[in-house]
Structures are given as structure tokens and as C-alpha cells.
Amino acid sequence: MPSVLASLSRLAFLSRFKPDNFTLVLLATVGVATLLPCTGQVAVVLGDFTTFIIGLLFFLHGAKLSRQAVIAGITHWRLHLLVLCSTFVLFPILGLAFKPLALQLLTPDLYVGLLFLCMLPSTVQSSIALTAMGRGNVPAAVCSASASNFLGIFITPLLVSAFVVQGHVERSTGDAVLAIVLQLLVPFLAGQLLRPVIGTWIDRHKPALKYVDQGSILLVIYTAFSAAVVEGLWHKLSPTVLVTLGVICCVLLAVVLAVTMYASRKLGFSREDEVTIVFCGSKKSLASGVPMAKVLFATSSLGMVILPIMLFHQIQLMVCSVMAQRFAQRRPD
């Protein structure tokens, strides 16, 4: 009997690391792009349709965001400042610090993707979900993650233009910001303005609308990897390079988790706020990163650029899910 219980306990622990359904579909999409890449006029039409779907995605993000939730958390400025510093200062510094080692172990395009990953905003859905699971400050998490995504529309292209090698960036700083404003911010603000009209319907259909969110990501990944496969992506990457990229992503996440946890305790935040800071400050958004990469980078390098984001996304979900359960088991202050 004890051996059976021990086996069940081990299975329960390992199940926390099992990829979710979306990750499996994402991997299947990469497989389809590898075997059946889209080319020619089909790729052009699919690219235009993807641009439309991304605009719809950010329109729905704007319509889903509750102003009451933002107002409830906006006064906690010290927490938000720490999260933003982790997202847009600590991460980019670490990305630049990894440069000498990463350029020796990874391809130049993969390092650009790693650096781009470090300049992305935080996630919204998973940050809030993990904060709630870990018994953190949920209203502050809603405000902080939303502010990170909103500011990322401006900050990410500025950081990319300043620190990413110019040969990899398709647009100038001004053009990049303008393109992201038109494709992402304008639909987002339109959704916010129409929330009084359509907010109730949006809230009632949130489970169904997640398919627009996930579908837009899968479309961009399919078109990006199709172009990359045509350019010879898998001939340029070895299994050793992929494993090395995974290890670097793990180290990057571990350092940020340690720094955010230490800083939140050193600055005297409550345990609920610590959970919020750790989860909001350590996340990087696949939902925002993939559309931004499509706007900022040349099509020929897009597959390599988004590969680190995809890998980091799965690692952060698995690690932080375990951490959230540990946080939930702690006694309150």
C-alpha cells in the first residue's frame, strides 16, 4: 500500500509538468509547417488574413479588460513599478549579458529571438491565473499585467530598435512603433471604447473567444515556420542547439524568479503582493510576442526569432504552476 501511494504521488507530481493541450497543438502546427509549408500566393493570402485576425485579437483584449479591475489595482504603484522594472529592465539586461555565451552556443538568429523574448511585455491570462492559484493579489495582477501589455506596444519596438542588430529588423523605430500602434493599439482602444456596448456579451463568451486568441498565434506560427522551412530552418538547427536554447531559457527564468522574490521580500511587500510580483514580473507574452515579431522582423528570420518565445512560454507555465501550488500551501501573513 505505501508503494502504491508513493507511485500515485510521483505521478501527480509529474502531471504538473505535462504540456497543456494548446502546447501540443502548437507543436503539431510546427510539424504541419515542416511537412506542408505554405508558399507563393497562398502564403501571401494567409499572411493578410493573419494580420486581420491579430487586429481582431487585440480588439477583443480591449473589450475584455474591465476598467473596475484596473482602478482597483492601479493605486499599488510600488508593486507595478517593480513588475515593470523586471519586465523591461532586468530581462533586457540579462539578455544582453548572455550575448557572449549565446553567440558561441546558438545561431545569430536564435540569439536575436532570445533578446527579443527579453524585451516583450508580461502575459495577462497566465499571470492572473497563477496569481489566483497562489493566493496572491489578483486585482493588482490584473492591473500590472494589463499595464505591461499596453506599455509594451511602445517600449518593445524601442528596445528592439536600440539593441537588436539592424539587419534583423525590417522597419525603422518610427515605422515599427506606427505599425504596432495601427495593428495592435488602435484595435485595443476600439475594444475599450466599445466595452460598455459589447462588454456583457464578451464576458459571457470568454471561453469561446479564447479560440481567436489561440488561433491567431497558431496562424502566425504556421506562416512563420513555413517561410523558415523553405529557407532551410531545420538544416541550420541541431538537437544540441535546441537543448542549449532550452537550458538558457531555464537559467533566464530561474534568475528572474530569484531576483523578483528577493526584491519583493527586501522591499517589505506582503506575501500576497510577493506572489503577484513573482508571477507578473517573470512572464513573457506569447500572445503579444508573436504578432509583434511579425510586424518587426523580416519574414525570412521570423521562424528562428519566435522559437525561443515558444520554448520559454512552455517552461514558464510548467515551473510557475508548481510554484503557485507551493505558494498556495503557505500560511498567510
TrEMBL record:
One annotated Gene Ontology cellular component of this protein: plasma membrane
PANTHER family, per database record: SODIUM_BILE ACID COTRANSPORTER 7, SOLUTE CARRIER FAMILY 10 MEMBER 7
InterPro entries the record matches: Na+/solute_symporter_sf, Put_Na-Bile_cotransptr
Protein name as catalogued: Bile acid:sodium symporter
Transmembrane residue ranges: 21-36, 42-60, 81-98, 110-133, 140-164, 176-194, 215-234, 240-263, 292-312
Domain of life: Bacteria
Organism: Pseudoduganella lutea
Lineage: Bacteria, Pseudomonadati, Pseudomonadota, Betaproteobacteria, Burkholderiales
Alphabetically ordered keywords of this record: Membrane, Transmembrane, Transmembrane helix
